[in-house]
Amino acid sequence: MELQQLKYFVEVANQLHFGRAAERLHASQQSVSHQIAQLESELGVQLFKRTTRKVELTQSGEALLEQVHLVFKHLQRGIDEAVRAEHGRRGRLTIGYFGIMLYSILPSAVRLYRERYPEVEIVMQELPSHQLEEKLLQGEIDVGFSVYLNDKHSELSMNWLPFSTESIVFALPKHHPLATKKELSLADLEKEPFVMLNRNDSPVLFDIFVLFCRQTGFSPNIVQEAASDQAVIGLVAAGVGTALVLGCMSRLFENDITYVPMAESMFNIQLAICWLHSNETAQVEQFAEVVKSFIP
Q1: With b meaning 16 or more CB within 10 Å and e meaning fewer, what string describes 8-36?
Q2: Tens place of pLDDT per residue across the chain (296 aa)
Q3: So where are the chain's domains?
Q4: Which CATH number fits domain 168-267: 3.40.720.10, 3.40.640.10, 3.40.190.10, 2.130.10.10?
Q5: Does this UniProt record's set of keywords contain Oxidoreductase (predicted)?
Q6: 222 bridge partner residues
Q7: What are the CA-CA distances from residue 249 to residues 118, 180, 282 (Å)?
Q8: Phi-psi category of 196—alpha, beta or left, where left has phi over 0 and alpha has psi -120 to 50?
């Protein structure tokens, strides 16, 4: 059974006349009659009563017509959905991120994308920073929110779209002697105890912060490591030590912590989204356009 046979059958059923059906189908009457005869043969039933004066549907024909209408309805729905998927109007978008990205444009970008493409399913995966590239390469996530390191090796396989440059600020307990300063140099905290993200959970930021300290001429005195950015801030609020954090986090625990800008602007960090060169789906391209709308 072919789709063309069903199309011919429906038109003959609508016209109850082989000649008029052939005209509407832009086919010969002989071709239409042949297709209907072939369909009846394949089904083993008579679909039309034919006389020299008229054509009528049999009970079998009426039953088939009802179901064929449903078939064409579902087929058109499938075609419409395929077109919508091709244009990014439906489907799935999996976004990977690590905790600190929740204080960036991520929530706003996801919200705007949902508003524009409400039928696309968005799956969010929080991951340790070092797993983002691995998950992208394995095809388990479509887009990653990460720190842009200007890594030429990763750019061979991935697109990078930096969306903000974050300053680093010092998080100090409210009553710390340095909390009254308008800005501080990294060297001013050489003797201070530091709270850091656990390197196993966030090796990218851990290594960056330690590198900045060593470039300044000292190794940080790390007295406590934490599994999340929120935990780092909480431990500073508790007076355990000081911390280096991104400026986007400087509204947390404001009653207990003072955030002091860093004098050295050279230590700023770029945040970006990344995705594979080979992932050219409409959903990824449209999400990148949404992120671009947040870039000043």
Answers
A1: bbbbbbebeebeebbeebebeeeebbebb
A2: 788 888 888 888 888 888 888 888 888 888 888 988 888 888 899 998 888 788 888 988 888 888 888 888 877 777 766 766 665 566 889 999 988 899 899 999 999 999 999 989 999 999 887 788 889 989 899 999 998 877 666 677 889 999 999 888 999 999 999 999 999 999 999 999 999 988 888 888 888 899 999 999 999 999 999 988 889 999 999 999 999 999 888 888 888 999 999 988 777 888 999 999 988 888 999 999 999 999 98
A3: 3-86, 91-165+270-292, 168-267
A4: 3.40.190.10
A5: no
A6: 194
A7: 29, 19, 32
A8: beta
C-alpha closest to that of 220 among 233, 205, 231, 230: 205
As beta bridge partners, residue 91 has 120
Nearest to 108 by CA among 140, 83, 139, 145: 145
Q: Note the pLDDT of residue 131.
A: 86
Amino acid at 120: V
- For 103-116, letters b (16+ CB in 10 Å) and e give bbbbeebbebbeee
| Whole-number Å distance between alpha carbons of 275 and 87 | 18
Helix (H), strand (E) at residue 245: strand 243-246
Considering only CA atoms, which of 229, 241, 236 is closest in space to residue 255?
236
Of 178, 196, 195, the residue nearest 187 (C-alpha): 178
| Region of residue 17 (phi > 0: left; psi between -120 and 50: alpha; otherwise: beta) | beta
* Domain 3-86 of CATH type 2.60.120.260: no
The gap from C-alpha 180 to its chain's centroid, in whole angstroms, comes to 42
Residue with tokens 């003072």: 258
- 91-165+270-292 folds as D-Maltodextrin-Binding Protein; domain 2 (3.40.190)
